[in-house]
Every structure is written in C-alpha cells, then in structure tokens.
C-alpha cells in the first residue's frame, strides 16, 4: 500500500491544499495530512481546531487521515509509514525552497518528496512557470508528475 505524508500548518483556508490531496490520491492509496503543532503563534486557529476543521473537509474520503505532530517531518514520515512526502508549490519562488527541503528530507529519512503545484484548476502548471523553470535550467517534466497545460 502506498502512503503519502502531506505536512503543513493547514489552516482550513490554505489555498491549494485540497487540490494537492486530490492529485496525490490519483497515484497513492492514502494521504496522511500532518498538521504541525509547533507553529501555533503563526496559525489562524489552535492545532486541535485545525485538525477538526481539516477532518471535516475529508470526512467522506476514507483514504485521507488527519493527524497533528511536533518535530521533524522526516521523523513523522517514518512513524506513519509513508512512502513519499508530498509538498505543495504555489510559485517558482516556492519551488527552490521546496526542492532544497526535498533534498534534506531524502538525506534524513531516505524518502522521496513529490512537489505538486497548487493550481486549483486541475493542478496544471502555467506557461510562465514552465518558462521560469527552463530559465533556471530546470526540466519541468522532472518535477511535475502530471501533464502540463501550456497557457497562451
């Protein structure tokens, strides 16, 4: 059984996380949403309230589990038996940070990180993001595990 860990702060209004979960369920059997509880000061709601709000969003999807955790993402990935860590990317600026984080996660626990764009419309990558990746010497097909839609 394949299982992805999707870590984050997950206030219910976080843009794009539902698209990431939906996309992940197309190639993984289960998604564990892990709500970080060591960022309380920056969150809109307390941890347990966030956990309940996110559980409510996925109450009809048995393949999604919602937990809270404190500590390092690689540790929780190993604890829940994840085969991959999924991270959402909102922009090219996010991409570089997330790519570096994926490298660190791989070194710490041996688990690959899958980066998915958070476009709510079919999780597609716009042509401007593709151009930006190519500009910085990145092959978009290496990092985006879904079909690219090129906007005119």
Distance between the termini: 40 Å
State the shape. Answer: globular
Would you state the CATH class?
Alpha Beta
Number of domains: 1
State the order of secondary-structure elements, H for helix, E for strand. EHEHEHEHEHH
* Rg over alpha carbons: 15 Å
- The helicity comes to 25-40%
β-strand amount: 15-25%
Task: Give the integer mean of the pLDDT values.
Answer: 79
Q: Work out the number of β strands.
A: 5
Largest sheet: 5 strands, parallel
| Separate helix tally | 6
Strand order of the largest sheet: 3-2-1-4-5
Superfamily (CATH H level) name: HUPs
Low-confidence stretches: 120-125, 145-152
Structural class: alpha/beta
- CATH third-tier fold name: Rossmann fold
The CATH architecture name reads 3-Layer(aba) Sandwich
Task: Outline the fold blueprint.
Layout: E1 3-8, H1 17-24, E2 30-36, H2 47-57, E3 64-69, H3 73-80, E4 84-89, H4 92-109, E5 112-117, H5 127-135, H6 140-143
Parallel strand pairs: 1-2, 1-4, 2-3, 4-5
Care to describe what's here?
With 152 residues, the protein is an alpha/beta fold. The protein has one domain (3-143): Rossmann fold. It is built from six helices and five strands, in the order E-H-E-H-E-H-E-H-E-H-H. Helix 3 crosses helix 4 (92-109). The model is unreliable at 120-125 and 145-152 (pLDDT under 50).
